[in-house]
Amino acid sequence: MVTLSRSCVVALIALSTCALSACARKKTDSAAPELVCTPDDASGCERLARRYLTGEKVGRDVAKAAELFGVGCAAGLAASCYDLGVLHASGEGLPMDLKKAAGLYERACERGLAEACTNLGGFYREGKGVTKDVAKAVDLYMRGCDLGNALGCSNLATWTDLGTDFGSDPVKAAKLHERACKGNNIESCINLGVMRVTGRGVTKDPAAAIPLFEKACDLGAGEACYNLALIHYNGDGAPRDLDKAHSLFAKGCDGGDPEACVALGAMIAAGEGVPKDEAKARVLFRKACQRGNVRGCEHLERRLTGAPSRAH
Q1: Separation between Cα atoms, residue 293 and residue 282, nearest integer Å
Q2: 17: pLDDT strictly greater than 60
Q3: Which pLDDT score, from 0 to 100, does residue 59 have?
Q4: Element (H or E) spanning 20, and its range?
Q5: Which residue has the higher pLDDT, 255 or 28?
Q6: Residue 296 backbone dihedrals phi, psi, to 5 degrees
Q7: Which residues have CB under 8 Å from 15's CB, separation 6+?
Q8: Global pTM?
Q9: Mean of pLDDT over the chain
Q10: Cα separation of 161 and 171, whole Å?
């Protein structure tokens, strides 16, 4: 059940150039007179740019937002460089330009913005807008992690555990997942929980996985609720508790995890800890099947046609 945190790969748009003095003469939009963009207050340009990006109190205008982020970036504001980089990387409202995005992320990273370091690490990992460089990607993920970006820790942890481009180091991966989980990265909380259950990279201790799965479950991760339900269902790491298992399978299913729907359907179909109800079970198996879960489809087919399900 380990889920892999995907590296953050963003796309970027071409920078709309504007000399600071020229932009300053425009000052602010009449619809937002409290925000002033001047050479002495580039932060006002940054705040106004975000208004144009979201359309708050002004008409949404991505090109104008990019222009103002350019002013803030030129004045040394890391967040403006980063936000402009995200626009160029996504191609939303501006031409996609990964090379410019990489350059802007680099400027923001050099100024200590953790998210920019993590995003730039993704670029170097995949060779987007830059020449692929695994060592540099590792360094950038680590820099983002050290600066407090949980995604940087999580991306590096998953990459380190898999050992796709270098030797696998599950012990190091577990430590990185722990840092990321403390920063509320859901994937790392789940992955570290699985490592606790299996003993990969850490001492095997299913009970220690419970608070990790609980945290991720409370943050809305259906898979974490499913994993937590399994602990209570099997009595591995906690006393067997079918009521808790039922409740957590239901929460996981509602949270989008098809395996949780299948497990809940199986409990209800068998009347295990709950009243037996074939109709409810079919609804759950159908939900899992519609989400692409093969076991859900097999359970549903068996109940609708009487055909035996294939071996799992």
Answers
A1: 14
A2: no
A3: 86
A4: helix 20-26
A5: 255
A6: -60, -40
A7: 66, 70, 84, 88, 100, 104
A8: 0.79
A9: 86
A10: 8
- Average pLDDT of the segment spanning 252-273: 95
The token duo for 173 is: 């991966």
Helix (H) or strand (E) holding 250: helix 242-254
CB contact at 8 A, 209 and 217: no
Residue 41 corresponds to which tokens in the numbers above?
């207050």
Write the DSSP assignment of 200-221 as a string of letters.
Answer: SSS---HHHHHHHHHHHHHTT-
Q: Is the model's pLDDT at 161 over the cut of 60?
A: yes
Given pLDDT bands bounded at 50, 70 and 90, which one contains residue 50? very high
Instruction: Give me the DSSP letters along 65-133.
Output: HHHHHHHHHHTT-HHHHHHHHHHHHHTSSS-B-HHHHHHHHHHHHHTT-HHHHHHHHHHHHHTSSS---
Exposure of 227 in the CB half-sphere (CA atoms within 13 A): 31
| pLDDT (tens digit per residue) in 120-150 | 999 999 999 999 999 999 999 999 999 999 9
Scan for tokens 């205008």, then name that residue: 61
| Amino acid found at 159 | W
Nearest-5° angle of CA 120, CA 125, CA 131? 85
**Closest of 295, 269, 267, 263 to residue 282, by C-alpha:** 269
How many other C-beta atoms are found inside a 10 Å radius of the C-beta of residue 244?
17
214-233 burial string, b = 16+ CB within 10 Å, else e? Answer: bbbbeeebbbbbbbbbbbbb
